[in-house]
C-alpha cells in the first residue's frame, strides 16, 4: 500500500500455509523417507492414538449424553466458506457440498475430543499433530473449526512450553489463523497470552510456532493491540536475534505486521530495540527470507515516523540498504529502495542518504530518490548483462 508519493508501507500478507512447519512443508510431506525404526515408532504412535481416541470418545459420550453427530456442537466459531490466503493467488469458489469425506470429519471430531481430554500426553500430541497437518488444507480448516478445535488448541498452548503438545497446538493455530474470521475467533478464545508465554519460555520450536501464530493474528488491528498489551513485542525482538533461522524470519514478519499503520506499535518496537536488531538481520540474516523479512519490517517502521527513521540512520541502516539495492533478492531490493525513499522525507536522514550516494549536502529529495532508482536500475542492467 503506497501513500503520499514515495512514502510507503506494506503489510505482510503472504501467509503461506506450509510455513507452519519447521521442517519444510507439512509433517506428512516426508512420507517415503522414514527409516524402518522411525516407521515402527510412527505406527506405535498411531496405535496409541487409536486407543486414546476410543477411550476419549467413550468418556466424552458419558459426560455429554448420547447425541447424534448431526446435532452435536462442540463450540468454536464457524469459518467462512472460502478461507483466505495470499491475495495474489485467489482460490476458486467452493462448491456447495464440502469435499471433506465423512470419515475424515469423524476423525477430526475425535482428534478435537482427544485434545480436550485427560488422556496421556503422547496421545494428545499425536492428535494435535494430525490437526496441524490437516489445517494446511483450506477445506479441512472449515471442518476443524466447525468441530470446535480452536478452544482445544488454545488449551494445548497452555501445556508445559517444553513439550510437543504446546508446539503442535500453536502450529495448528498458525495455519488456521490465515483465515480472517479465524483470526478473530482464535484471539477471542484467549490464545494471545499463552502464545506470548510460549515465545518467552518455550523450546526453540515452540517459540517459532508461537511467533508464527502471532504473525498471522497480527494482521488484524484489534489483535495487534492485544499482542502489544500482553507483552508480545520484546520476545519477538529477542527471537529475531537469538532464535534459529526459521524462528528469526517468522518473528521479523510478525514485527512487520505489528508495525503496519500504527504509530503506537511502531514506538513500542523502537523502545524494545527492534531497529538495531532488524538492521543487523537485514545484513547478516541466515537466509534470503530472513533478510527480506527484516527489510519489510523496517520499511513499515519507517512510514511517517521520524523517530524511527533517525534511529535507523543511527544504527547504520543506510549503507546496508544501499548494498541490498545492488545485491539483494528482488523483494529485498524493493523494500530497501522504498525504505531509503522514506528516510529521504526526514531532512537529517536525507542528508545522510545523499552522503552515502556521494551527492551534494543540499540535494533535494527528488534528486536523492532518483539516485536510489538509478541504483536499482544498475542492478537490473547487471543482471541481464
Automatic annotation (TrEMBL):
Name listed for the protein in its UniProt record: Ubiquitin-protein transferase
Keyword Disulfide bond: no
Keyword Cell inner membrane in record: no
InterPro entries: ARM-like (IPR011989), ARM-type_fold (IPR016024), Armadillo (IPR000225)
Keywords attached to this entry: Transferase
Region annotated Disordered, chain positions: 1-103
ARM repeats: 148-191, 190-232
GO molecular-function terms, A-Z: transferase activity
PROSITE patterns in the record: ARM_REPEAT (PS50176)
Domain of life of the native organism: Eukaryota
Bias (Basic and acidic residues) ranges: 1-14, 71-80
Bias (Basic residues) ranges: 30-44
Amino acid at each position: 500500500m503506497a501513500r503520499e508519493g514515495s512514502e510507503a508501507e506494506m503489510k505482510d500478507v503472504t501467509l503461506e500455509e506450509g510455513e507452519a512447519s519447521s521442517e519444510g512443508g507439512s509433517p506428512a510431506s516426508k512420507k517415503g523417507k522414514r527409516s524402518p525404526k522411525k516407521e515402527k515408532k510412527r505406527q506405535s504412535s498411531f496405535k496409541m492414538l487409536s486407543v486414546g481416541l476410543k477411550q476419549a470418545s467413550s468418556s466424552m459420550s458419558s459426560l455429554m449424553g448420547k447425541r447424534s453427530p448431526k446435532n452435536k456442537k462442540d463450540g468454536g466459531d464457524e469459518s467462512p466458506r472460502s478461507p483466505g490466503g495470499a491475495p495474489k493467488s485467489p482460490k476458486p469458489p467452493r462448491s456447495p457440498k464440502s469435499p471433506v469425506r465423512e470419515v475424515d470429519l469423524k476423525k477430526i471430531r475425535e482428534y478435537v475430543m482427544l485434545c480436550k481430554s485427560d488422556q496421556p500426553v503422547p496421545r494428545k500430541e499425536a492428535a494435535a499433530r494430525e490437526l496441524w497437518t490437516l489445517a494446511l488444507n483450506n477445506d479441512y480448516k472449515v471442518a476443524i473449526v466447525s468441530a470446535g478445535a480452536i478452544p482445544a488448541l488454545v488449551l494445548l498452548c497452555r501445556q508445559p512450553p517444553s513439550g510437543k503438545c504446546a508446539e503442535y497446538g500453536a502450529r495448528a493455530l498458525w495455519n488456521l489463523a490465515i483465515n480472517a474470521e479465524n483470526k478473530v475467533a482464535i484471539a477471542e478464545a484467549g490464545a494471545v497470552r499463552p502464545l506470548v508465554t510460549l515465545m518467552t519460555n518455550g523450546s526453540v520450536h515452540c517459540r517459532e510456532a508461537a511467533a508464527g501464530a502471532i504473525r498471522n493474528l497480527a494482521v488484524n488491528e484489534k489483535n495487534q493491540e492485544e499482542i502489544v498489551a500482553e507483552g508480545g513485542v520484546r520476545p519477538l525482538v529477542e527471537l529475531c536475534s537469538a532464535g534459529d533461522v526459521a524462528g528469526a524470519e517468522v518473528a521479523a514478519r510478525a514485527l512487520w505486521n505489528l508495525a503496519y499503520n500504527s504509530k503506537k506499535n511502531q514506538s513500542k518496537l523502537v523502545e524494545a530495540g527492534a531497529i538495531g536488531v532488524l538492521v543487523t538481520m537485514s545484513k547478516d540474516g541466515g537466509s534470503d527470507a530472513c533478510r527480506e523479512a527484516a527489510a519489510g519490517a523496517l520499511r513499515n517502521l519507517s512510514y511517517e515516523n521520524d523517530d524511527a527513521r533517525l534511529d535507523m540512520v543511527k544504527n547504520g541502516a543506510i549503507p546496508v540498504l544501499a548494498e541490498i539495492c545492488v545485491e539483494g533478492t528482488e523483494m529485498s531490493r524493493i523494500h530497501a529502495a522504498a525504505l531509503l525513499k522514506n528516510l529521504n522525507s526526514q531532512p537529517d536522514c536525507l542528508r545522510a542518504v545523499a552522503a552515502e550516494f556521494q551527492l551534494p549536502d543540499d540535494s533535494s529529495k527528488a534528486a536523492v530518490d532518483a539516485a536510489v532508482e538509478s541504483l536499482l536500475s544498475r542492478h537490473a542492467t547487471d543482471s541481464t548483462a
